[in-house]
């Protein structure tokens, strides 16, 4: 395949599509390397639109890690909107990278990072546009190795037919190991062809190659077992975990988007993992153990990132950023350093019981006082015990009262609907809580103009969580409860007019549930949906519930199962789950015990501060949870001056 830029053919099409700037590349800090000097060539894809994909930290980190190697190049590709897809097909323009506008099919590896399962049809669009056979079994040495990563890769079975391999867990060290294997295989003249290089990857124990495993089914449709069909392949595939975050201070040169993106900020990941034990949260379970970046490491990344980008906001990222053991020192140190500049700080993820007004005041010291966001997740005390979200209503009211008394006017509260054991009353309690927030805020602030927004999403059971056995709530039930909730909010107009309500209907959540807990038989459904026009299913204007329902009705009866079998059916303890051979480090017996605790409405403490609960991760990893304080300080500790590129982006380096 030609490696020449397709831009001469692409450029005339761009005036005919929406947001053409997202396809032109050339962002600040982007890297374009000589093709012929590279021994291994990666194309990294985030399977969604540019505005969602470019800020993704995972892709950005791997892009930089790979491009630091002198004989390796990495370029990026994103999903194209349907308007450009139609023109590309009409004018024979293949899927391209935004860096060099090279054909994706010419690369050695196509690494796809899935944050959500609703991006699966986008993978098929990209493969088809790239001229890569949809089915891995039809590919030859001429085609890239298609690898999946990201959270959805912890159950890649629904897209097993379309993948050559999947990587579980952190990617920094994994991509380097994969690169070494492919480099050596190519240097040896590609012995044994595609089969051999995939076998070498599988032998590491950290790369899953679906074709090397056979799935056997019971007469009732359940899985009997999943077994290797090659001698050199392990029975279980283990996740990768990067333990020392300070050794991986990426991205050092964050990308700055040309088009508007969902996050207009420079982000620093301050720690990975979470031990709060929220039973619905796949991210918290699969990223254990907790690994904190040191305070000096955070300070250096913030300073270098701002100098390299000119952003005016720094997001301190993690699953629950205020849980960093030195978060007070981090925020005060950064606020001191950037006081008097245009640089603002934000914690996108804050728990009610980890929040305090001193922390919030440090974040708002430069005059930026936006709304505060908290996630009680469940409306009633009972349902919060079920999901192990140990936040009392008293905690919430006390927190927001303090915030309103200190000048905040807007609070956003996140909830879920359709949780296991949930009743109508659990959901209606959300309205009562929101009204109490308004009352408390008015009393604390002496003002009437305060607001509370409740945002509600549908619950989706996820693999490797205690809720992986749970029956998913039907969309009709979810939508009915949300209608009742809206009516309950409006029973008192004096309070209800200050309460905003945003929610997603239950239909996309059910399809996400099908894809998150499905097995290889669901691949037929995904392909049919795609062939029937399914694109960008994560966007409400493109998602079609009926298309998915019809595809399930067409493809699944042959196997004796249906949409409800994969979604609204509760699993039993002994059932072999599609992902049981993929090891997240969590002990399945511990997950089941926690599921039973949920049904009994029993809470479990955070194991960072209490004795071990034997979830299995630390012994499996040969490590311990990392927790401060380290006693270190931000370096350098001097405030930023007016001649600094941080306060004056015009002085920032251009490459």
UniProtKB/TrEMBL annotation:
Domain Radical SAM core: 260-502
Entries under InterPro entries matching the protein: CHP03960_rSAM, Elp3/MiaA/NifB-like_rSAM, Radical_SAM_N2, rSAM, rSAM_horseshoe, rSAM_sf
Gene3D superfamilies named in the record: tm_1862 like domain
Molecular functions per Gene Ontology: catalytic activity; iron-sulfur cluster binding
Residues annotated as signal peptide: none
CDD domains: Radical_SAM
Name the record gives this protein: Radical SAM domain protein
């Amino acid at each position: 395949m030609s490696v020449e830029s397709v831009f001469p053919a692409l450029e005339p099409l761009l005036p005919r599509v929406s947001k053409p700037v997202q396809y032109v590349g050339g962002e600040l800090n982007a890297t374009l390397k000589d093709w012929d000097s590279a021994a291994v060539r990666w194309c990294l894809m985030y399977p969604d639109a540019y505005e969602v994909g470019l800020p993704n930290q995972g892709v950005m980190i791997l892009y930089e890690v790979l491009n630091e190697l002198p004989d390796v190049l990495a370029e990026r590709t994103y999903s194209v909107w349907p308007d450009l897809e139609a023109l590309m097909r009409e004018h024979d323009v293949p899927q391209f990278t935004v860096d060099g506008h090279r054909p994706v099919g010419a690369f050695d590896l196509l690494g796809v990072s899935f944050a959500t399962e609703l991006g699966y049809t986008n993978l098929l669009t990209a493969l088809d546009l790239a001229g890569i056979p949809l089915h891995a079994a039809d590919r030859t040495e001429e085609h890239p190795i298609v690898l999946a990563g990201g959270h959805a890769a912890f159950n890649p079975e629904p897209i097993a037919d379309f993948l050559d391999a999947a990587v579980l867990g952190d990617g920094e060290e994994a991509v380097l190991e994969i690169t070494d294997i492919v480099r050596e295989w190519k240097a040896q003249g590609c012995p044994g062809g595609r089969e051999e290089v995939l076998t070498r990857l599988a032998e590491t124990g950290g790369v899953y190659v679906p074709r090397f495993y056979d799935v056997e089914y019971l007469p009732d449709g359940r899985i009997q077992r999943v077994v290797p069909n090659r001698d050199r392949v392990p029975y279980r595939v283990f996740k990768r975990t990067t333990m020392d975050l300070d050794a991986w201070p990426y991205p050092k040169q964050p990308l700055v988007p040309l088009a508007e993106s969902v996050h207009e900020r420079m982000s620093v990941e301050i720690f990975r993992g979470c031990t709060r034990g929220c039973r619905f949260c796949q991210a918290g379970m699969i990223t254990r153990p907790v690994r904190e970046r040191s305070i000096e490491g955070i300070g250096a990344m913030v300073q270098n990132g701002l100098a390299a980008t000119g952003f005016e906001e720094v997001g301190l990222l993690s699953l629950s950023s205020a849980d960093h053991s030195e978060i007070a020192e981090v925020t005060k140190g950064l606020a001191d350093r950037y006081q008097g500049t245009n640089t603002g700080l934000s914690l996108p993820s804050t728990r009610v019981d980890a929040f305090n007004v001193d922390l919030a005041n440090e974040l708002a010291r430069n005059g930026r006082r936006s709304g505060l966001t908290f996630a009680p997740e469940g409306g009633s005390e009972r349902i919060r015990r079920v999901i192990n979200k140990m936040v009392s209503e008293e905690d919430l009211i006390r927190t927001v009262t303090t915030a309103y008394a200190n000048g905040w006017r807007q609070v956003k509260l996140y909830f879920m609907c359709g949780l296991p054991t949930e009743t109508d009353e659990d959901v209606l309690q959300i309205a009562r809580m929101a009204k109490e927030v308004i009352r408390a805020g008015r009393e604390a602030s002496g003002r009437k103009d305060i607001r509370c927004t409740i945002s509600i999403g549908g619950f989706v059971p996820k693999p490797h969580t205690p809720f992986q056995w749970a029956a998913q709530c039907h969309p009709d039930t979810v939508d009915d409860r949300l209608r009742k909730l809206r009516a309950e909010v409006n029973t008192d107009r004096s309070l209800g007019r200050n309460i905003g309500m945003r929610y997603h209907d239950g239909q996309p959540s059910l399809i996400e549930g099908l894809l998150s807990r499905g097995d290889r038989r669901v691949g037929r459904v995904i392909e049919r949906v795609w062939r029937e026009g399914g694109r960008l299913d994560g966007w409400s204007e493109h998602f079609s519930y009926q298309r998915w329902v019809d595809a399930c009705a067409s493809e699944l009866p042959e196997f004796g199962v249906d949409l409800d079998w994969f979604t609204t059916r509760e699993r039993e303890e002994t059932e072999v789950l599609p992902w049981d051979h993929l090891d997240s480090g969590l002990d399945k017996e511990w997950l089941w015990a926690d599921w039973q605790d949920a049904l009994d409405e029993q809470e479990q403490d955070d194991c960072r501060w209490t004795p071990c609960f034997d979830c299995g991760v630390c012994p499996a990893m040969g490590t311990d949870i990392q927790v401060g304080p380290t006693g270190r300080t931000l370096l350098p500790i001097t405030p930023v001056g007016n001649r600094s590129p941080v306060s004056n982006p015009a002085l920032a380096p251009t490459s």
